[in-house]
Specification:
The termini are far apart. Strand 4 and strand 5 form a beta hairpin. The protein has 193 residues and is α+β, with helices and mostly antiparallel strands. It has six helices and five strands, in the order H-H-H-H-E-H-E-E-H-E-E. It has a five-stranded antiparallel β-sheet, covered by helices on one side.
Length: 193
């Protein structure tokens, strides 16, 4: 019966058969490891994988992915911003810190004076956060104690601008940035020289 088929159809069938066989060959060759060439960690049962094994598996999974653009990378993998030292005053360490934190996440601790309840601290810090947002300074706020909160800045250089505002507030006991304490203007704590 095959001899009764039109010759052009025979050619098309041969092309399809050759094409399918090429695909099957490519699929069988494309395997990364042969069973006996797999590393030891890959031969384990998935339930026996350690954290290191899972990390290697993730790296292997992602090795063929296109690299992420710079702004899509997690913060710890982004390159540090370039600092133009000619524009910075070497006698002002605060401006150097501020420039080095540009575009980086920074936590600031803010203490409320007096003996506030958790609700009072919540209301006071919420008011301060709203004032900062109205000044285009984006800060997330998290209470950590009855009289203390963390202000998280996605752009760390804004923390010093926010500090200037916060220390002028009547109920602000102090602001801590990068381990340095800045007392509030109305607090009884004086900065040590």
């Amino acid at each position: 019966m095959i001899w009764l088929i039109d010759p052009s159809v025979k050619i098309k069938m041969k092309i399809i058969i050759v094409f399918l066989s090429l695909i099957l060959i490519n699929v069988s060759i494309a395997k990364k490891f042969k069973e006996n060439e797999k590393p030891e960690w890959a031969k384990k049962d998935i339930r026996d994988y350690t954290e290191a094994d899972m990390e290697r598996l993730l790296e292997q999974w992602e090795e063929d992915d296109e690299p992420l653009e710079e702004d899509e990378l997690p913060e710890h993998l982004r390159p540090m911003p370039k600092l133009d030292m000619t524009k910075l005053d070497p006698n002002d360490p605060q401006s150097l810190l501020e420039a080095s934190k540009k575009g980086r996440t920074l936590m600031t601790f803010v203490s409320v004076s007096g003996n506030p309840t958790r609700e009072e601290t919540e209301e006071m810090t919420k008011l301060w956060q709203t004032s900062l947002w109205n000044s285009h300074i984006q800060a997330e706020r998290y209470l950590v104690d009855d009289d203390r909160a963390i202000f998280l800045f996605k752009d760390g250089s804004q923390a010093w601008v926010a500090k200037e505002y916060l220390v002028k507030q009547e109920r602000c006991k102090g602001v801590t940035i990068e381990g340095k304490e800045y007392p509030g203007e109305f607090s009884n704590v004086k900065e040590e020289l």
